[in-house]
Every structure is written in structure tokens, then in C-alpha cells.
Amino acid sequence: KKIIIATKNQGKANEFKQILEPKGYIIETLIDYPDIPDVVETGFTFEENARLKAETISNLLQVPVLADDSGLCIDALDGSPGVFSARFAGEPKSDARNNAKVLAMLGELNELSRGAYFHCTLVLSSPKKESLVVEGTLSGEIAKFPVGDYGFGYDPIFFVPELGKTLGEVSEDTKNRISHRANALKKLDAQIAEWFK
Ligand code: ITT
């Protein structure tokens, strides 16, 4: 079965392919459809934005579409940047400036006050069906400085105590065993066969 992922984020695209292709899905993303205009994310929740992306693109292409809206929620910042994670440090979108901004805002706060989690909401939509919505999270801490070149986004400053490393230091395989996106995909996997019937 072919699924189009409504994302232009190369990091997300790589993770979806690595998790879903071995299960037999053919995965395309909006990186393969450069003429499709950006969906403006006007929602105030992950679910609203994921629905906007999935339902808009599914109606446009008339095929099943999966969208991911995700972000980093930091305890000491009352859940910020949350749905504003992609452009936290303004336009143009820059992972390096986003990470620098988070580190500057947390300053010298000690380990106990650096708690955070990644959140991922996935919405699977089809023109003729009620959308399927699932979510996943991953808990960790904001590191004192960026470490590692793997992954994307906030991975180099997201320390996972169970791994003793940041997500920037672990392979895509390791990240895909524990991540917010992988946890959401496990829930989707449990419901997708029924949904596709
Ligand atoms: P699309 O809308 O095209 O999918 P986007 O990057 O704009 O791409 P979001 O609006 O969902 O997607 O923003 C998610 C941001 O949250 C992303 O740009 C990263 O900054 C951060 N993020 C989400 N998942 C992440 C992960 O697994 N590792 C690191 N950062 C992540």
C-alpha cells in the first residue's frame, strides 16, 4: 500500500521510510511533490495542525495521507516551544538557532530543572473516511550544550537518560526504537489494517 506523508521535513521523511518500508509500505513525501504549496499551520494544538496537513493534502491528491505534527515541550518553559518548535527562533527555519535559543533560555538551570519531552501526533486521512489520530511521547532532559550530528531538529540537545546520550549521538535505528514518532507509529500500526478495510 502506498502512503503519502504530508511532510517536507527531510529528517521526518527518513524516519518514516526506515520504519514503514520494511513493513511493506511504499512511502512518498511532499519532497517528491515540490509543486504542492505549503499548508499553513494555523492550529494551536498538535492535533489541529496534523489534521490540517493530512486532510488538506488527502483532499487534494484523493489518496490516503499521513501527517506528523510534533515538537519539543520543555517543563521550565511551561511546554514551550511546543507547536511552535519548527520556527522557535524565527524565519527562516534553523535547527542551529532553535537549539541555541533553547540553551540560552535555560541558562545554567541544573539537571533537575531541565526536564522535557518530545510529542508527536499522527493523523491518517482519506477522502472517504474518518481520520485516524494517534500520539506518542519521549521523555528526556535538555543537555547543557549540543552533542552529536545524527538526527535533526532538537536531537543534539535532547538527552535521554536511559541511553546516557543525546539523540544526536545515536543511530537512526536506536532513535526509531524509542522515539515519540516511533511510539505513535506503533499505535497506528495496531489500527491501520482495520482502518484500511
Ligand atoms: P512538516 O510540517 O513539513 O512536517 P515541520 O518541521 O514544519 O515539517 P512541525 O511543524 O511538526 O514540522 O515541527 C516539528 C518541529 O519539532 C521540527 O521542525 C523540529 O524542530 C522539532 N522536532 C519534531 N520531531 C523531532 C525529532 O524527532 N527530533 C528533533 N526535533 C524534532
From TrEMBL:
<dbReference type="GO" id="GO:0017111">
    <property type="term" value="F:ribonucleoside triphosphate phosphatase activity"/>
</dbReference>
<dbReference type="GO" id="GO:0036220">
    <property type="term" value="F:ITP diphosphatase activity"/>
</dbReference>
<keyword id="KW-0460">Magnesium</keyword>
<keyword id="KW-0547">Nucleotide-binding</keyword>
<keyword id="KW-0546">Nucleotide metabolism</keyword>
<protein>
    <recommendedName>
        <fullName>dITP/XTP pyrophosphatase</fullName>
        <ecNumber>3.6.1.66</ecNumber>
    </recommendedName>
</protein>
<dbReference type="InterPro" id="IPR002637">
    <property type="entry name" value="RdgB/HAM1"/>
</dbReference>
<comment type="function">
    <text>Pyrophosphatase that catalyzes the hydrolysis of nucleoside triphosphates to their monophosphate derivatives, with a high preference for the non-canonical purine nucleotides XTP (xanthosine triphosphate), dITP (deoxyinosine triphosphate) and ITP. Seems to function as a house-cleaning enzyme that removes non-canonical purine nucleotides from the nucleotide pool, thus preventing their incorporation into DNA/RNA and avoiding chromosomal lesions.</text>
</comment>
<comment type="similarity">
    <text>Belongs to the HAM1 NTPase family.</text>
</comment>
<dbReference type="GO" id="GO:0005829">
    <property type="term" value="C:cytosol"/>
</dbReference>
<dbReference type="Pfam" id="PF01725">
    <property type="entry name" value="Ham1p_like"/>
</dbReference>
<feature type="binding site">
    <location>
        <begin position="152"/>
        <end position="155"/>
    </location>
    <ligand>
        <name>substrate</name>
    </ligand>
</feature>
<dbReference type="GO" id="GO:0046872">
    <property type="term" value="F:metal ion binding"/>
</dbReference>
<feature type="active site" description="Proton acceptor">
    <location>
        <position position="69"/>
    </location>
</feature>
<dbReference type="GO" id="GO:0035870">
    <property type="term" value="F:dITP diphosphatase activity"/>
</dbReference>
<keyword id="KW-0479">Metal-binding</keyword>
<feature type="binding site">
    <location>
        <begin position="7"/>
        <end position="12"/>
    </location>
    <ligand>
        <name>substrate</name>
    </ligand>
</feature>
<feature type="binding site">
    <location>
        <position position="70"/>
    </location>
    <ligand>
        <name>substrate</name>
    </ligand>
</feature>
<dbReference type="InterPro" id="IPR029001">
    <property type="entry name" value="ITPase-like_fam"/>
</dbReference>
<feature type="binding site">
    <location>
        <begin position="180"/>
        <end position="181"/>
    </location>
    <ligand>
        <name>substrate</name>
    </ligand>
</feature>
<dbReference type="GO" id="GO:0009146">
    <property type="term" value="P:purine nucleoside triphosphate catabolic process"/>
</dbReference>
<dbReference type="InterPro" id="IPR020922">
    <property type="entry name" value="dITP/XTP_pyrophosphatase"/>
</dbReference>
<comment type="subunit">
    <text>Homodimer.</text>
</comment>
<feature type="binding site">
    <location>
        <position position="69"/>
    </location>
    <ligand>
        <name>Mg(2+)</name>
    </ligand>
</feature>
<keyword id="KW-0378">Hydrolase</keyword>
<dbReference type="GO" id="GO:0009117">
    <property type="term" value="P:nucleotide metabolic process"/>
</dbReference>
<feature type="binding site">
    <location>
        <position position="175"/>
    </location>
    <ligand>
        <name>substrate</name>
    </ligand>
</feature>
<dbReference type="GO" id="GO:0036222">
    <property type="term" value="F:XTP diphosphatase activity"/>
</dbReference>
<dbReference type="GO" id="GO:0000166">
    <property type="term" value="F:nucleotide binding"/>
</dbReference>
